[in-house]
Design a protein that fits this description.
Layout (H helix, E strand, L loop, with lengths): L2 E7 L4 E7 L5 E4 L5 H8 L5 E3 L5 H4 L2 H8 L3 E3 L27 E2 L5 E4 L2 E7 L8 E5 L9 E5 L2 E2 L2 E2 L9 H12 L7 E4 L5 E2 H7 L8
Parallel strand pairs: 3-4, 4-5, 5-6, 10-13
Antiparallel strand pairs: 1-2, 2-3, 7-8, 8-9, 9-10, 11-12, 13-14
Length: 211
């Protein structure tokens, strides 16, 4: 059985997660503000950091997490000022501490750590580098999990008015990739409360399954 710990940080109230398996494998997903300090406070040292995308609020602590815990960073793309939105919010003086991607990932890849195995689903539209991580445990007590970043929320979907956003691409990716997952899959989003794939297929006003 896996345990999930969550941290909400920054002015955008961004969720970061840590998965701990029964064998002791520890994997962090996203790094909002305060993530590194929070990990130290709860006594968890991740062996890997998986990033759903490079928008500033999800990677604020990426460099610090990597530095403090020595864990490699996995992401779809290396950060740049457009992906982090530093260029879009230059007038605010927004700055992300530079970090390097140690292991680039792509659609269909699997990231394994101990008895954990995360499948990568590339779902662009909110950001061109947006990915979701699907974790199906071999333990029947565990529901499958989807770490969705800013792709799918409870009753909503990710914004597409940022640079390189594409609403149609996002909707198609949700319908074709996420809604193909089991209905009991728990969605752990980048913002807000968790939900279920089955619930969103029936009730999400932005993306319902076509009749």
């Amino acid at each position: 059985m896996v345990r999930i710990h969550s941290h909400c940080g920054g002015f955008t109230q961004t969720n970061g997660y840590v998965v701990v398996s029964t064998s002791g494998a520890i994997v962090a997903l996203d790094a909002p503000a305060g993530m590194a300090e929070w990990l130290e406070a709860i006594g968890l040292r991740p062996s890997r950091l998986l990033l759903t995308h490079a928008h500033f609020d999800h990677v604020t602590d990426a460099a610090l997490v990597k530095e403090r815990f020595g864990c490699p960073v996995h992401a779809f793309a290396s950060p740049n000022s457009e992906l982090t939105l530093e260029s879009a919010y230059a007038e605010m003086g927004l700055r992300v501490e530079p970090y390097e991607v140690d292991e680039p990932i792509a659609e269909g890849d699997r990231i394994a750590e101990g008895d954990l195995s995360f499948a990568c689903l590339h779902v662009p539209g909110h950001s061109p580098d947006s990915v979701c991580f699907y974790l199906a445990s071999g333990d029947p007590k565990d529901s499958p999990l989807l770490f969705g970043g800013d792709v799918l929320f409870k009753g909503s979907i990710g914004r597409t008015d940022f640079p390189h956003g594409n609403h149609d691409l996002l909707v198609r990716g949700i319908r074709e990739k996420l809604y193909a997952l089991p209905d009991e899959t728990v969605v752990l989003p980048g913002h807000g409360p968790e939900t279920l794939i089955g619930t969103e297929k029936k009730k999400n006003p932005y993306v319902r399954l076509e009749d």
